Amino acid sequence: MAIKRKTLTRHGREGFKNIRRNGWMSFASMSAVAIMLFVVGAFAFLIVNTNHLIDTIENDVEIRAFFEHDVDASEQESVLEEVESHDSVENVVYRDRDEGLDVFMESMGSDGEVFENLREENPLNDALIIQATDPQMTAAVAEEVNAQSAIESVEYGESILGQLFTVTNYVRILGGALVIGLIFTSVFLISNTIKLTILSRKDEIQIMKLVGATNSFVRFPFFIEGALIGLIGAIIPIAGLTVGYSYLYSFMYDQVPFFTFVEPNPMIWQISGLLLLVSILVGIFGSQMSVRKFLKV
Amino acid sequence: MITMKRVRKTYPNGVQALNGMNIHIDKGEFVYVVGPSGAGKTTFIKLMIRELKPSEGLIQINGNNLGDLSDKQIPYLRRKIGVVFQDFKLFTKLSVYENIAFALEVIEEEPEQIKTKVMDVLDIVGLKSKARFNTSELSGGEKQRIAIARAIVNQPAILIADEPTGNLDPETAWSIMGTLEEINNRGTTIVMATHNSHIVNTLKKRVIAIENGKVVRDELGGSYGYQA
């Protein structure tokens, strides 16, 4: 049976009024929502940034393949082309021994200048700087490049790379598990708090039924009320997290230039939207589940 | 209008509240249901609004067999029967007006009609001036009147009142009875469970006495018949 519009208006109005009528209980529910969302939201930002950090570290992994000293330019060219066409190679840069010395001297800072007299007798090799499409493919790509006869040796930090990937994989799995666990916990806690607010209104529901209200007539205002508790409860943590994160982002941007946080836009809106949606759904779910118990009159 | 045949009700704990009850009440009657505490009066009322289901037997209201009603049909039955509960069952957080209006909102009455009908019925019970009061600010007698007002605002064919004069001073009790008589005069069938011997013996009506879950006496213009 379709609900008449005036009845729908009535339900909406009652939903709002009930928040006010049950002032303290509504406040308790909203606080529970706010606190849990704040924790979940803060954790979500942490996870997103940890992932970002891992990505940054992993993407810094590069292979340096050194040519034999006696390899001529055309042979180097053909190796470069072959490496470039490899499926798992993202990017290759050729760096001759002069550039190599520049980079080395630069890395030594002001002490680097003493190496300038090495330029005539440069002991360094011409090299290819290779990045794999997937950082985890680095070792395999390095092996293949090393197999080329024109290549003297490859370096890619093999000793720490394996450990790095083990650690980053664990961090990702652990982070994911924590987020899921935290979401479940907060869904449980929020819907339980809402249940308590409705538990205290068992008599009210019973009276409605005895006066001839249908189940859906009883349920609807609680539906609105649950959604509102979720909505209002979500506003404060979302506002707090948005402002806090934006501030933290610009602070880090100025103070710690070598590591930037994930840009607030659009990440912050995506997480906020998700929090809001989850909060409203949990509010509705909590209220409907608890009303259901008292409808059998 | 109301018919019960061989109705039995046994509670899950084994207590047998009704034990083969037979009753027939016609349209427009005013009936007192009397009997000692625990005789089964409240169970009898709960069965009529399907708050309880009989363990055995037939209950008909307006020709509908309550045993055939699905859960979805129960609200529609209850809208045809006004009930004044012993404990009033008012919404404590709502105003007098909102309490009565609720019964009309349930049947999706037009908002302008709700206002008119609520004020009319408040006029009948003499509490028009307290429409905006919260029910917690009312005296027992006033709450009783609001409960009556809510029960009759839908103009139900039947009004069931469980101890409507219980806990009230005699003067208030009599004015409540005046209101019920007025409602009865408009054609509403009234079934009133009571312990008030003075009222039963003074305002003579049909008296149905229940003991041990059975009708033991049913007489027009009868007396209370128990020690007050």
Give the SSE map.
The complex is a heterodimer of chains A (297) and B (228).
Chain A: H1 5-21, H2 23-59, E1 63-67, H3 73-84, E2 89-95, H4 97-107, E3 127-132, H5 138-146, E4 151-155, H6 158-199, H7 202-210, H8 215-255, H9 264-294
Antiparallel strand pairs in A: 1-3, 1-4, 2-3
Helix pairs in contact in A: 1-2, 1-8, 2-6, 2-8, 2-9, 6-9, 8-9
Chain B: E1 2-10, E2 16-25, E3 30-34, H1 41-48, E4 56-61, E5 64-65, H2 74-80, E6 81-84, H3 96-106, H4 111-124, H5 140-152, E7 158-162, H6 170-185, E8 189-193, H7 197-202, E9 206-211, E10 214-219
Parallel strand pairs in B: 3-8, 3-9, 6-7, 7-8
Antiparallel strand pairs in B: 1-2, 1-4, 4-5, 9-10
Detailed description of the structure:
The complex is a heterodimer of chains A (297) and B (228). With 297 residues, chain A is of the alpha+beta class. Chain A has 2 domains: 5-57 and 164-294, no CATH class; 62-156, Alpha-Beta Plaits, CATH 3.30.70.3040. Chain A is 70% helix and 8% strand. Chain A has 9 helices and 4 strands; from the N terminus they run ααβαβαβαβαααα. Chain A is elongated. Chain B has one domain (28-54, 79-219): 3-Layer(aba) Sandwich (Rossmann fold), CATH 3.40.50.300. In chain B, strand 1 (2-10) and strand 2 (16-25) form a beta hairpin. The radius of gyration of chain B is 17 Å and the shape is globular. Chain B starts with a strand and ends in a 9-residue tail after the last strand. The model of chain B has no long low-confidence stretch (mean pLDDT 92). The A-B interface holds A 4, 6-7, 10, 21-22, 203-204, 206-214, 217, 297 and B 49, 51, 72, 75-79, 83, 85, 89-91, 93, 102-103, 105-108, 110-111, 150, 154.
